[in-house]
Write a structure and sequence with these properties.
- It contains 9 helices and no strands.
- The N terminus is likely disordered.
- The chain has 2 domains: 98 residues, RNA polymerase sigma factor, region 2, helix turn helix motif (Rna Polymerase Sigma Factor, Chain: A, Orthogonal Bundle); 94 residues, Orthogonal Bundle (Arc Repressor Mutant, subunit A).
- Helix 2 packs across helix 4.
- Helix content is 72%, strand content 0%.
- It is mostly helical.
Length: 192
Amino acid sequence: MNTGSLTVDTQLEMQWVHQAKRGDKQAFGKLVKAYMQKAYYIALSIVHNHEKAVDLSQEAFVKAYYAFDSFDEQRRFFPWYYRILKNACLGELRKNKRSVNFSAIAENIHDVVDDNISRQQKMEDDERKEQVWIAMNKLKENEREILLLREIHGQSYEEIAQLLGCPQGTVMSRLYTARQALKKRLQKMGVV
């Protein structure tokens, strides 16, 4: 599942931000519309529940709206919003502290599946996906986050650097470390 990149034209976004900072609710609505799908998929990858992902992404936009006075107009909107969304999702997980439904996760991963693949192959693929998610769930939070951003959401190194507020070199280093940690977990589980 690739949720795309930060595709809103920088100048257009800056215009909307400028207008929204001056009280234009429609301009803020344009920011919401531009990023709502990406926000939903990020929330879904964290909480693994459709309804909660919708609620949390909307809740984060509301929080962003009320905190918009603190937003620096010279920066991109989505990295700032991402931190609000991430905190809302992590708060929800801490609040509920319930186990993850891995079969629901497998259903939410939208892979293109060739109709010719046998039922047995599909079951094996689903089992492998579930094992990967179990292994990812055992990683450190920062390792899981960077893998989700790169491998699930298809964010570029530059975009991840913006979202996490660190240099691209750090992103590449963290991503390498996270991939190695995931590989070790999968090997321990007997998954090739």
